[in-house]
Structures are given as C-alpha cells and as structure tokens.
C-alpha cells in the first residue's frame, strides 16, 4: 500500500508542482526589509498553564508568544511567520487529544485553532510529531490553514530505486508574496521554504514508521533540493531545521546538523530548534563558525528560540536587487522572551492574547478534568529532586510498574523464567527545563495528572533480551551522566554533566551496583565509545552474586531506548523480543490501579562508590528540594542566579 500523503486528499499537504515564473520586481527597486519569525518546540503548550501543577505560569505558552508575534509583525512592513515542529506532543493536552478524545478529519486540533488565528505562513515537522502515529499526524495537519514541509522523509514504495521515491509530505513550498520596498513600492517576492527532521525518527518511532516511510540525511537532502528551489525561481531560501548544532556526532546520520546545513550553498536563513536552547546566546560561545553578535552560522543568519513558546525568534533580512535577483545584503537576529528571570522567579514581560485562550478553552477544560481523575494513592512522597545523585522514588515506581508488567507479558512464552529487570530514567530533573522542572508529589491520592508527571512521554513498552555483559554496558553508557571527579583536588567540582540529558540516565532495577565517578567515562554524551578500558560500574551483582556475563535477562524499557534512542550498546532494535501495545504511562496507571495504595520508596539498588580524599562534590537542583524528606544527606550551598540551588554531596570515605 502506498502511504504517500498525496493520496489523502488533504489540500494543505498535497505535493504540487512548484511555479517557475520569473521575478517581476523593478530593476530600479530599492532595498526591501523582510522579517522572518519563528516558534519552535511548542510541545502542546498553547497556554501558559502547567497541567501537572494545575496552575498558570509565566515562562511558557503560545498565548503569551502570540503577543510578541503580533507586536513584531506590526513593526515590520513585510514579515513571515513559521513554526519548526515538535508541536503535537509534550503535555497532557497532547495525550488527551491523541489517546483519549481522538481526532477525525474535518476537526481542527487545538494547536491549529490557535495557530490559524496567528496567520502562520508555513511550518516544519519535528520528531515528536510522529509519537502518536502517522494517521493522527495527518488528521492533525489537515486542520492547518498553512502548508507543511518536510524534505527528508519519503513514502515506502516497495522498490529498490531511490530516484523515484516520493516525499511523504511536500519537501518544500514556494511562498509568493507581495512586499513593499524601502521606497514604498510593491514588489513580487518568491520565498522558498524547506524543512528537515532528525533522521533518528526511524529509531525513536520505529513501530509507527517502519515499512511506511524512509528517511535521509539532512545535509544530503539539502544539497539535492536547494538548487532545485533556486532553479524554480526562489529569491530567498529559508531552511527550517528541526535540528540543533553540535561539534561532534556519533556514527551514522547526524541528528544535530544545523551547523553543517549552514554550509550548503543557496540557503539565506536558517530557523532551527530541537535542542530546547537559545541561539544566539552565550551558551554557544566559541562554537566553530558561530558569530553570536551577528547571529550567524558560517555567515548565514540563524535563530533558535528556546522551547514551549518561551521566545520568539526573529531574523531581519535586508534584500538588495542585483540584476534580476534579490540577494541578502545584511541581517540582524534576535530572540524576544515572554519573561525575564529574577532569581528564582519568572517575571512576565507580556500577557496572553485572549483570542488564543478562547480558541482552545474547550480542550483545555477537558484536559484539566481528564488529568484530575484519581487512580490510587501513595503512602510516601515522590520527588525527583535528587534523581541524578541517589536512587529515587520517581524512578522506582516506574521501574516497579514496568517489571510487574514485563513478568505478565512473558508468562507462558519461551522467555518465561528469565529474570526480569526494568530500566527507567528521570525525565523531570531540571536541566534545560529549568529549576522548577521536577516531580514533587505529596503522599495521598494520585491522579492521571500525577502519572503524566512521573512519565511525561507517550512511549510504548518494549522488552529486550540481553546478557549480563550487555546489561553492564547499558549502565556504563548511563554513567556518562557524570563528570569525572579528581580525588586529588580540594576545589569544588560539579558532578552532573550539563551536556548529558537526564532521560539518558537509566537506572536498572533488579541488579545492584556502584558508580565510581573518579574513573573516566567509558561512553560519551552521544553514546560514542571514549575509552574501552574505562569502567565506572563496579560491584554489579544479581541476587547478591557478581553478575554472570552470559546470564540472559529480559529488560523492560520503552520504544525510544529499545529502538536505538540515545545510542546505547546492544539497543538498536535487534534485541527486542516484545513490542507491547501499552504505553509505559498506561502500564504505570494499571499498576497503581491494581495496587491500590503504594509505598514507592527507593530500594537503594545503586549508589556512588566512595572516593578517597577530601573532595568537594556539588550538584544543582530545585531550591524546593530543601523541604524534601530525602534531602538529609545533602548540604545546601547557595541559590544561583539561574534559579537552581547548589548542593554538596558527600562522596569521601
């Protein structure tokens, strides 16, 4: 069956031949100014509302960004507005729409109710758009009043000839716009817009995509198509890349390829995202090819405006006519924030646009009701304040649920009798999510809202079969979470690596082990092997005995990890034995319903190995951690300008 989107009949998504008519601008035209605006990684945050805490907030929400959009548009004679994807997944409203309420063709998804009001000109598709499957994606996009582009994903056509592969969604679009030059004269301008998504979607959402689409590299696709866009008559080419920037990559297709993309001839501006960061900013000081004052990558103006609507990215292009062509003669780049940080507090800079709030009001209220449904109770508090520095209840309850589920799944199969382990990671542990991005549940009734807080992604459960040696390597890869500590130094040393995302710090329950952070890391942040002689995981035991490298285990995890997400050894899809239909979050709900009341205290199956020497090791967490029951081991140092609190952890013998 051909799953090309061109067969769906969705007008906004059909791939149509691009016009090739020439320029109509006067040869004597003055310069003209073109403003490009971008949102990215909205992750369903239409409103400035935290469904986990059931309260309004000041530091995210498209309703607030909408104020910046309308102000910025009013300042410019000519402007275009784009979104960079990771739109449909990310908070409980996304899950409510996809998992509970559902969506039919002809209905408009709430995010598009909001975005249609703002008059977006075009948009790209991020990796998380695929989390709910292709059918839900297509139904959602059918409600957009603007075109979508995606150049590096193709429909599977059943033959071995890549030359006739058809884009699943149109690879680029030509926007014909009537614009005004600096002399007040109207000119015709053709803006070519091309989009890219990380090739890793084939691993991250393998169950939804395998056999239906294929993917190509970002840079290779750009090199093939940008000349085609130019030949079709584009005066300006805008690349929307759902991809960050990085100085190194693991083997294979590049996930964060925007720096390389900026070296492709013919691209005039790059709107990028995926990394949940702000570019230009001090975070990229010294990055090769980056001019932070000018806001360029290898001379190409580029912007990345944070996440969840925290910022509006703006690129202002000055276009000068040379012969029959317009060229970019100057540019300016900025990010405008919806809030400013004052210590721990987020101070709003703008208010919400009421028409955006009204547009999604029904789905908003339904989501609040949905996440408030009780599923059980917990006898002790659950928080993730210390999830990166000690065994933690927020991971423990997930691992307990997954192990419970895994044992049921393999009952009566050839794998029955194999030991079942469970791997879970702290999803809400600060980091790029900020000092308030932690789980903090009091003892008592637990609702769907709380389950979504414990497991924020709509992953589906996967069971993999590994041996003891592979389990050991899995843990070594996770231990890249930590900086190496120098036992001979008496200066303060930061324990947690800022470049390693917490969702790649897997804790495996069912075995016991220590992590020796005085040793170098065996693996890097991207899963690359750094030192084959390095070992941080020591005293790894199963049932009280040193683990047998040949012992077989079933490990319960999720589709992201089992399919290759994070580049973990032996986790490339080939070791999967069960592709479960349940989401990990539903597994957790079922476990709580079956248990009634739970006591999710951590079982202490891992800890840091003691370090000889008078070391001062510190880490950052939420200031709210001071009131937590599991804070006794740690010494508060200070609250930083970033809003995080600094703590000292005792590691000396």
Fold and architecture overview:
The protein is α/β, with parallel strands linked by helices and 653 residues long. It folds into 2 domains: 334 residues, Purple Acid Phosphatase, chain A, domain 2, CATH 3.60.21.10; 247 residues, 5'-nucleotidase,  domain 2, CATH 3.90.780. It contains 15 helices and 38 strands. Strands 8, 9, 11, 12, 13, 14, 15 and 16 form an 8-stranded mixed sheet that branches. Strand 37 and strand 38 form a beta hairpin. The longest helix has 18 residues. The protein is globular and about 80 Å long. The N terminus is likely disordered.
Q: Residue share in helices?
A: 10-25%
> Number of helical segments?
15
Task: Return the structural class.
Answer: alpha/beta
User: What's the multimeric state?
Assistant: single chain
CATH topology of the largest domain: Purple Acid Phosphatase, chain A, domain 2
Distance between the termini: 64 Å
User: Stretches where pLDDT falls below 50 for ≥5 residues?
Assistant: 1-27
């Amino acid at each position: 069956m051909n799953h090309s989107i061109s067969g769906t009949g969705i007008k906004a998504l059909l791939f149509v031949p691009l016009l090739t008519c020439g320029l109509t601008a006067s040869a004597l035209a003055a310069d003209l100014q073109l403003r490009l605006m971008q949102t990215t990684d909205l992750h369903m945050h239409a409103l400035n509302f935290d469904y986990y805490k059931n309260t309004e907030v000041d530091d995210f929400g498209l309703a607030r960004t909408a104020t910046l959009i309308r102000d910025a548009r009013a300042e410019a004679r000519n402007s275009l507005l784009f979104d960079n994807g990771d739109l449909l997944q990310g908070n409980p409203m996304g899950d409510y729409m996809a998992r509970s309420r559902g969506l039919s063709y002809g209905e408009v998804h709430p995010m598009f109710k909001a975005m249609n009001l703002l008059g977006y000109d075009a948009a790209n598709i991020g990796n998380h758009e695929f989390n709910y499957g292709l059918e839900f994606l297509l139904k959602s996009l059918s409600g957009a009043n603007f075109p979508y582009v995606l150049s590096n994903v193709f429909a599977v056509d059943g033959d071995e000839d890549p030359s006739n592969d058809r884009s699943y969604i149109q690879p680029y679009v030509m926007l014909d716009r009537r614009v005004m030059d600096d002399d007040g004269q109207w000119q015709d301008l053709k803006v070519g817009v091309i989009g890219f998504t990380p090739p890793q979607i084939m691993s991250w959402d393998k169950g939804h995509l395998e056999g239906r689409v294929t993917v190509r590299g970002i840079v290779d696709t750009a090199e093939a198509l940008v000349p085609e866009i130019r030949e079709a008559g584009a005066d300006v080419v805008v690349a929307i890349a759902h991809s960050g920037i990085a100085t190194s990559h693991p083997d294979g297709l590049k996930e964060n390829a925007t720096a390389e993309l900026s070296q492709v001839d013919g691209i005039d501006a790059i709107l990028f995202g995926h990394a949940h960061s702000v570019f230009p900013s001090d975070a990229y000081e010294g990055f090769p090819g980056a001019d932070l004052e000018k806001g360029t990558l290898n001379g190409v103006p580029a912007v990345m405006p944070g996440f969840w609507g925290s910022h509006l990215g703006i690129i202002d292009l000055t276009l000068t006519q040379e012969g029959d062509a317009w060229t970019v003669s100057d540019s300016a780049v900025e990010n405008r924030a919806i809030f400013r940080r004052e210590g721990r507090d987020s101070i709003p800079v703008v208010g919400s646009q009421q028409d955006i709030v009204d547009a999604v009001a029904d789905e908003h209220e339904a989501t609040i009701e949905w996440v408030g449904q009780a599923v059980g109770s917990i006898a002790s508090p659950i928080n993730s304040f210390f999830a990166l520095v000690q065994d933690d209840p927020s991971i423990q309850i997930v691992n307990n649920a997954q192990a419970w589920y895994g044992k049921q799944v393999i009952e009566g199969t050839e794998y029955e009798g194999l030991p079942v382990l469970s791997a879970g990671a702290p999803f809400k542990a600060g980091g790029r999510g900020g000092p308030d991005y932690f789980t903090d549940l009091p003892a008592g009734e637990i609702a769907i809202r709380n389950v979504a807080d414990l497991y924020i992604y709509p992953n589906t459960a996967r069971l993999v079969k590994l041996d003891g040696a592979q389990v050991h390597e899995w843990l070594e890869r996770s231990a890249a979470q930590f900086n190496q500590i120098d036992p001979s130094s008496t200066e303060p040393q930061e324990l947690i690596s800022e470049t390693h995302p917490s969702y790649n710090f897997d804790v495996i329950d069912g075995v016991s082990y220590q992590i020796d952070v005085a040793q170098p890391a065996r693996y890097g942040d991207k899963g690359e092997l750094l030192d084959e002689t390095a070992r941080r995981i020591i005293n790894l035991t199963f049932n009280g005995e040193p683990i047998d490298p040949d012992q077989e285990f079933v490990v319960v995890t999720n589709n992201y990890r089992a399919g290759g997400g994070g580049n973990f050894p032996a986790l490339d899809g080939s070791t999967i034995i069960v592709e479960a239909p349940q989401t990990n979050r539903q597994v957790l709900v079922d476990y709580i319903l079956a248990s009634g009341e739970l006591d999710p205290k951590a079982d202490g199956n891992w800890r840091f190995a003691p370090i000889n020497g008078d070391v001062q090791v510190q880490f950052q967490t939420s200031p709210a951690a001071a009131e937590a029951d599991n804070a006794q081991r740690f010494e508060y140092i200070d609250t930083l300008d970033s809003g995080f609190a600094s703590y000292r952890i005792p590691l000396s013998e």
